[in-house]
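Inverse folding, one chain.
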């Protein structure tokens, strides 16, 4: 299985810590990088403006994503790792860019020339406790307005090595985090073993993707079919975005930091039975996820209508599927439950709603919000936030057969948290549910109640003879 959680929960064993960071010359040259015409993606721009708005927070407001793995050797070739790190950064052009907010509030992208990218190893000595490593990773990885907002490292022992990549969310999504570990492993193996098979597909340019996205969405207006559909769904929800059905006890006078919990929903045999029941009703596993969530929320809030938001990848080609970047858009999943409480009936509706949502993949909701007039009657404004439910079938991801062997982990920092974010991950060894939510006593109780009810619905739906 893959471990999910907050960086505070990462427990690397003692060892000798070596990090890879931008050389002083590289960092200096990067600051001089010229402006590039490729805009940020809509997702990136919203993220950067929020980070800028909360720059005075006494903690890192932006997201920091940490990918970890354990390998059963203590004999790491540091020169080979240095070459692999730099090859990785040059392979994915998102890592050669940085942003600033220019005159008039315009968002400027700068592109660092390939010859100016140089990450070098730094020996930090022996570390005895996980807290020291966690603090080191977070303190040495800059924020999203610095070019080098990503670092690499290893913790070496006699018989094993912990590897990590820490990168600001600006440059990666969930798929990108999985892909990063696979890429780095192959690049390192290629440096130390001549017989390494060439499994690296040429990666697409993330800058080209951002340019194409903006060119498409710039043509949209309030009368565009996708925009009209979004507005229809929001109006059908009382003019508001989806909300979590229970009180979170959020305070408005302070930042609400993140808390986390992960539970196992299914082993793989049970997940297969759940999937079979979904397919017997013309749905897929993802339809079953939203059916279970809708039924759980009906029990909790007595609602006969479900409206949720889910992130999906926008990678459409083999080259984009080989590219690290923030290739994500949010889609709506909305459907009536009616009087029935039957999973078999609801899962069909949920699947249909999910597939309808996919039709809005190219209609960025961030762009929809930009188009709204100042006097809109909808309760949606820049900086909006809402709950999110993500489903990933990680069994299809490159290198998934090594997840257990390498004891992989995906972690995030305790950034600000205003909503409940849910990830359901189907892995080779089972299916997990991870929740990040505001760290308040009320939210802990509400999330416990929600997770327990949702797990019970999943368990009931997975029975062979419901």
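Residues assigned per position:
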């Amino acid at each position: 299985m893959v471990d999910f959680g907050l960086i505070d929960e990462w427990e690397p064993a003692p060892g000798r810590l070596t990090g890879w960071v931008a050389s002083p010359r590289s960092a200096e040259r990067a600051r001089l990088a010229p402006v590039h015409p490729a805009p940020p993606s809509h997702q990136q721009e919203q993220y950067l403006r929020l980070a800028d708005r909360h720059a005075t927070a006494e903690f890192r407001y932006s997201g920091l994503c940490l990918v970890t793995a354990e390998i059963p050797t203590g004999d790491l070739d540091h020169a080979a790792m240095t070459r692999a790190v730099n090859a990785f950064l040059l392979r994915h052009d998102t890592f050669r860019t940085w942003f600033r907010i220019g005159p008039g509030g315009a968002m400027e992208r700068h592109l660092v020339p390939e010859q100016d990218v140089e990450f070098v190893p730094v020996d930090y000595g022996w570390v005895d406790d996980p807290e020291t490593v966690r603090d080191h990773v977070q303190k040495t990885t800059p924020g999203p307005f610095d070019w080098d907002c990503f670092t690499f490292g290893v913790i070496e022992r006699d018989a094993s090595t912990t590897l990590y990549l820490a990168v600001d969310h600006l440059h990666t999504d969930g798929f990108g985090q999985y892909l990063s570990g696979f890429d780095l492993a192959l690049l390192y193996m290629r440096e130390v073993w001549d017989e390494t098979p060439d499994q690296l597909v040429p990666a697409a340019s993330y800058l080209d993707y951002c340019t194409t996205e903006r060119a498409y969405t710039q043509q949209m207006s309030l009368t565009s079919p996708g925009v009209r559909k979004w507005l229809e769904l929001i109006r059908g929800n009382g003019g508001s975005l989806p909300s979590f059905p229970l009180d979170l006890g959020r305070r408005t006078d302070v930042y609400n930091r993140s808390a986390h919990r992960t539970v196992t929903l299914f082993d793989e045999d049970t997940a297969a039975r759940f999937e079979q029941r979904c397919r017997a009703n013309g749905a897929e596993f993802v339809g079953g996820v939203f059916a279970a969530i809708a039924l759980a929320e009906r029990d909790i809030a007595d609602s006969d209508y479900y409206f949720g938001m889910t992130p999906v990848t926008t990678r459409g080609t083999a080259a984009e599927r080989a590219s690290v970047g923030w290739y994500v858009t949010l889609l709506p999943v909305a459907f009536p439950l009616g009087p029935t409480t039957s999973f078999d009936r609801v899962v069909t509706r949920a699947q249909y709603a999910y597939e309808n949502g996919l039709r809005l993949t190219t209609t960025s909701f961030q762009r929809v919000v930009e188009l709204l007039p100042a006097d809109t009657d909808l309760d949606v404004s820049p900086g909006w936030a809402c709950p999110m439910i993500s489903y990933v079938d990680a069994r299809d991801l490159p290198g998934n057969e090594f997840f257990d062997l390498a004891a992989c982990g995906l972690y995030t920092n305790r950034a600000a948290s205003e909503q409940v974010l849910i990830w359901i991950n189907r892995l080779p060894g089972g299916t997990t549910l991870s929740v990040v939510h505001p760290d308040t006593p009320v939210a802990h109780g509400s999330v416990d109640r929600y997770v327990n009810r949702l797990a019970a619905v999943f368990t009931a739906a997975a029975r062979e003879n419901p």
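The chain has two domains: 3-209, 220-396+414-461. The chain is about 35% helix and 25% strand.
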